[in-house]
Write a structure and sequence with these properties.
With 432 residues, the chain is α/β, with parallel strands linked by helices. It contains 14 helices and 14 strands. The radius of gyration is 22 Å and the shape is globular. 43% of the residues are buried. The chain binds pyridoxal-5'-phosphate.
Length: 432
């Protein structure tokens, strides 16, 4: 979501004038019509400036990795295994990497065989491939309210009808899920799958309570509804052991998605899917048609990292680092936010979901926040229907704790100002 502007040199200038009108506008496929740039994209270009405290993008703090060690490892990989690392491979992914992935998933009590895994370009590609093989235009996909913006984008690009299901502080509400399934069936349709982020949710920061997990699986099993369990943050919990994955209790009813973006490096773009056999075959075929195969170099880098480095220790270090940043965020919010603000208290991951006082619109407020040198993501991005304007996602993974405190201080002042404007001039003040 972070967008870097890059200077264009004279040599790179296009030779013809940029077209103001798209001459191909009538020729795009219907699914491309809905692909529009986010209206807040321009603001994010500004948010990347150093004077702004960005609580917006969801980037991991990769600078905490021992970069010199990783660099040496990559050099040795090319020297020792270059003929493999620089070659094509199978669309299912490197067998050695898939073995190591089984070790990672064992931490969440998943017992899987390497053959059950399909390597993907981050878990984002798995979302795209799943939508590609399951979604026809108008098909219903159930997602949490709010939901991960990249999943909404992937599903929308296949013209899914996205139906949100309510959450509370314990994650997805089983009764709301049962109700959404009933309503979908009553409308003469069947949902294709439930997409859920059970641990340290993006953007809501909540975790699906252990007591709810069996109920959710049970409801889906009875309805014949496939569960897509997206779990980028599961190993980044701040208290105790990782939660048992949904996939650990239902190998046939759950497609599990994992990624190395948050536990190693987002830039290697390596993730994976574990799926029942028939779905797995379709995923491999879809991946083949999309990219032939994934980067051997990236896959072998991760395989080498998992085989030769103390990756469990590194995850512990990441956990401590993010815990400190979470604490700084919660402390600053408690000390500085004006009355009427409420927020979640994440037990892991990267995000706090902030509810603004009644009448305050996070999207309308964003330009004023940027002027005050703080950025966040307005809640509207996390709802397919554009609701969520009273919410903001704060991401604490990247700024240092003192910068987080400063960012929250600036944000609190902006909110106070909005509340004052609303009191003085009513909704016409432009906050709605
Ligand atoms: C919930 C969730 N799913 C999927 C992704 C995609 O991650 P990647 O493609 O880097 O694995 C993200 C990234 O932030 C995420 O938060």
């Amino acid at each position: 979501m972070r967008i870097q502007e890059k200077a264009v040199t004279a040599e790179q200038q296009p030779t013809s004038q940029p077209q103001r009108i798209d001459r191909y506008v009538g020729q795009y496929a219907e699914r491309a019509v809905g692909m529009v740039a986010s209206e807040i994209r321009a603001l994010f270009a500004v948010a990347a400036r150093p004077e702004i405290v960005s609580l917006a993008g969801g980037s991991p703090y990769v600078a905490a990795l021992p970069l010199d060690v990783v660099g040496g490892m990559v050099g040795k990989l090319v020297a020792d295994h270059g003929a493999q690392a620089l070659q094509y491979c199978t669309a299912q992914g490197d067998a050695g990497l898939r073995e190591r992935i089984c070790d990672v998933m064992a931490l969440e009590e998943i017992k899987a065989h390497p053959d059950e895994i399909v390597v993907t370009v981050g878990s984002q590609q798995a979302l795209d491939l799943l939508a590609r093989i399951f979604v026809d235009p108008g098909d219903v996909v159930l997602v949490e309210a709010p939901s991960y913006v990249g999943a909404l984008g992937a599903f929308a690009s296949y013209q899914a009808d996205i139906v949100h299901v309510a959450m509370d502080d314990d994650g997805l509400i089983p009764e709301a899920l049962a109700d959404a399934i009933r309503r979908t069936e009553a409308s003469g349709r069947r949902a294709k799958f439930l997409y859920t982020v059970p641990n340290f949710h993006n953007p809501a920061g909540v975790t699906l309570a252990a007591a709810r997990r069996h109920r959710i699986l049970d409801i889906c099993r009875r309805a014949g509804l496939l569960v897509v369990e997206d779990n980028p943050y599961g190993l980044l919990g701040f208290d105790g052991e990782p939660m048992r994955a949904l996939r650990a209790d239902d190998a046939e009813g759950v497609v599990y998605l994992g990624t190395f973006s948050k536990t190693f490096a987002a830039g290697v773009r390596v993730g994976w899917a574990v799926a029942p056999a028939a779905i797995r075959e379709k995923l491999i075929l879809a991946a083949e048609s999309a990219v032939l195969c994934h980067s051997s170099f990236a896959q072998l880098t991760v395989r080498e990292y998992l085989s030769t480095q103390s990756w469990r220790e590194q995850i512990k270090d990441f956990r401590e680092l993010y815990r400190e940043r979470r604490d700084a965020t919660l402390e600053a919010l408690a000390g500085m936010m004006p009355p009427g603000c409420h927020w979640t208290r994440p037990a892991g991951g990267f995000y706090v979901w902030l509810r603004l006082p009644d009448g305050i619109n996070a999207k309308a407020m964003l330009p004023r926040a940027i002027s005050s040198r703080v950025a966040y993501v307005p809640g509207t991005g996390f709802y397919a229907d554009g609701s969520g304007s009273q919410f903001a996602r704060l991401c604490y993974s990247l700024p240092a704790p003192d910068r987080i405190a400063e960012g929250v201080r600036r944000l609190a002042a902006v909110i106070e100002n909005e509340v004052q404007l609303l009191e003085d001039f009513g909704p016409a003040a432009g906050t709605r």
